[in-house]
Amino acid sequence: MIYRFLADFVLVFHLLFIVFVIFGGLLAFRCRWLVLAHIPAALWGAYIELAGGLCPLTAVEVRLRRIAGDTGYSGSFIEHYVLPVIYQAGLTRDIQFGMAGLVVLINIAIYGTLVYRLQKIAANHS
User: Fold this and answer.
1) What are the residue ranges of helices labelled H in 24-92?
2) What CA–CA distance (Å, rounded) separates 39 from 45?
3) Residue predicted with more confidence, 1 or 14
4) What pTM was computed for the model?
5) On the CB side of 112, how many CA atoms lie within 13 Å of its CA?
6) Contact status, residue 5 vs residue 87, Cβ threshold 8 Å
7) Exposed/middle/buried for 78, CB within 10 Å: 0-12, 13-18, 19+?
8) Which of 61, 31, 63, 25 is nearest to 45 (CA)?
9) Which residue in 15, 38, 48, 126 could disulfide with 24, CB within 3.0 to 4.6 Å?
10) More reliable by pLDDT, 96 or 66
11) pLDDT tens track for 37-66
């Protein structure tokens, strides 16, 4: 029972981490120090997708599910939980490259806007 709960906790944490990777830069508008956590997280998310690797959180969740008596699953978190919602087909390298590109483009837009606003504020105070 506890292992299934822990696996679900890791699942929710993993989902929140993915949302943070994609949109965490928006939090930098309120808390500038979050940039220090978000940029490495965004780079990690892009790296995992580009390298075709598995996030360690996936391995932890699968291990906990197996200990709990479930069969677990193979592949990545995104392939198992997210892709069936978005796509009917399986995860391909092209999709992974597209997802990595999307993460990069979203974050470039967010940080570009943040830098622009900071420059505008600095210019108004000069």
Assistant:
1) 35-51, 56-67, 77, 83-86
2) 10
3) 14
4) 0.73
5) 6
6) no
7) buried
8) 25
9) 38
10) 66
11) 999 999 998 888 888 888 898 889 889 988
**Percent of the chain whose predicted confidence (pLDDT) is above 90:** 21
What is the arithmetic mean of pLDDT over 114-125? Answer: 88
- CA–CA distance, 82 with 15 (Å, rounded to integer): 9
Query: Residue 122 is encoded by which pair of tokens?
Result: 């600095």
pLDDT given at position 30: 86
- Is 62 within 8 Å of 81 (Cβ atoms)? no
Nearest C-alpha neighbor of 114 from the set 18, 21, 19, 23: 23
| Cα–Cα distance for residue pair 33/61, rounded to 1 Å | 29
**Residue 38: per-residue pLDDT:** 93
> Of 70, 71, 90, which is closest to residue 80 (Cα–Cα)?
90
